[in-house]
Amino acid sequence: MRRTLPSTISLACFEATFRHRNVTRAAEELNMTQSAVSRRLMELESRLGKSLFRRVKKKLVPEASAIQYAKDLGRILGELEAATTQFIAQGKESGLLTVAVPPTLASRWLIPRLNDFIVRHHLIDLNLVSKIKRFDFDSEDIDVAVHLGDGKWPGVHMQPLMDDYVVPVCAPDLLEGRQLNSAADLLQYSLIQHATRPLLWTNWFASQGVENAKAVAGPKFEFYSHAIQAATSGIGIALMSDLVVSKEIEEGSLIVPFGTPKKFEDGYYFAYPHSMVNNVNAQTFGFWLQQQCANYVASNRADCG
């Protein structure tokens, strides 16, 4: 069956003229002559059997029936352009990739390693945005994410990167020279809490064989960076992912008062929606992330329990 479909050039001429209400400006946008656009409009009107515009005091005014048609065409032509661009770029690394990352993980771990990706894949333009909690890929302009969680995210592909190892840390002066011999000894001090992981201390103490309601009490911070600053300021003891406090431990501004880094409840994942399954930029970044995480684990987690 033959389709009732005018040429896309004629449709583009009509849609551009509708937006500009001017044939000359439409011609400039489409890189055509004014007479060529006018001819395409007349051909389209002849094909449709209806007038699209009328002239009122030398101005183009769209007919009532043409207004919705033009709006629909604008949406359809936009989708055609996007589909064509995606097809042309398929199999090639190029363009923008927006990545959501927890802010402290980004500044403490990812960004120091990012130049390696930029050098290897210089045609991919990364746009990093901060996200602490799970979000909706459908409603936000984000392509992929590095996510710390339990691996459950309905409708989203979750590719494991590495386990989360946590360790208690505090300022050296907080202990005043005292030696902590058990996990229960930490309860003598203020416990810095994470707003996004409210049961972290409770679960950690339970894993150490200590049950105490005081584990949920203490100053609470939403951002890991604030919790780290609170610990270095001597406010209390924080339970942190080891990879975000390694610099402070190495410099001596934070110490580990008890125990060693231990694998805990959550893990790091490369998360992406179904629309990114065959996206070259997304999968290239995900593969690079896996390599970086594997290198980190091999270098820093060999002796961790």
Structural write-up:
This protein has 305 residues and is an alpha/beta fold. It folds into two domains: 8-89, Winged helix-like DNA-binding domain superfamily/Winged helix DNA-binding domain (Arc Repressor Mutant, subunit A), CATH 1.10.10; 95-305, D-Maltodextrin-Binding Protein, domain 2 (3-Layer(aba) Sandwich), CATH 3.40.190. The protein is 42% helix and 21% strand. It has nine helices and ten strands. The protein has an eight-stranded mixed β-sheet, sandwiched between helices. Strands 1-2 form a two-stranded antiparallel sheet. Helix 1 (8-20) crosses helix 2 (23-30). The chain starts with 7 loop residues before the first helix and ends in a 5-residue tail after the last helix. The relative contact order is 0.13.
Which descriptors would you attach to this protein?
305 residues, alpha/beta, Arc Repressor Mutant, subunit A, D-Maltodextrin-Binding Protein, domain 2, 8-stranded mixed sheet, two-stranded antiparallel sheet, 9 helices, 10 strands, 21% strand
Could you please say which CATH topology of the largest domain applies here? D-Maltodextrin-Binding Protein, domain 2
Radius of gyration: 29 Å
- The N- to C-terminal Cα distance equals 68 Å
Cross-sheet strand order for the largest sheet: 4-3-5-10-6-9-7-8
Low-confidence blocks of residues? none
| Proportion of beta-strand residues | 15-25%
Sheet/helix structural class = alpha/beta
Gross morphology: elongated
Distinct helical segment count: 9
Helix and strand string, N-terminal first?
HHHEEHEHEEEEHEHEHEH
| Largest sheet data | 8 strands, mixed
> What is the correct CATH architecture of the largest domain?
3-Layer(aba) Sandwich
Count of spatially separate domains: 2
- Name the CATH class of the largest domain: Alpha Beta
Number of strands: 10
Average pLDDT works out at 86
Helix content: 40-55%
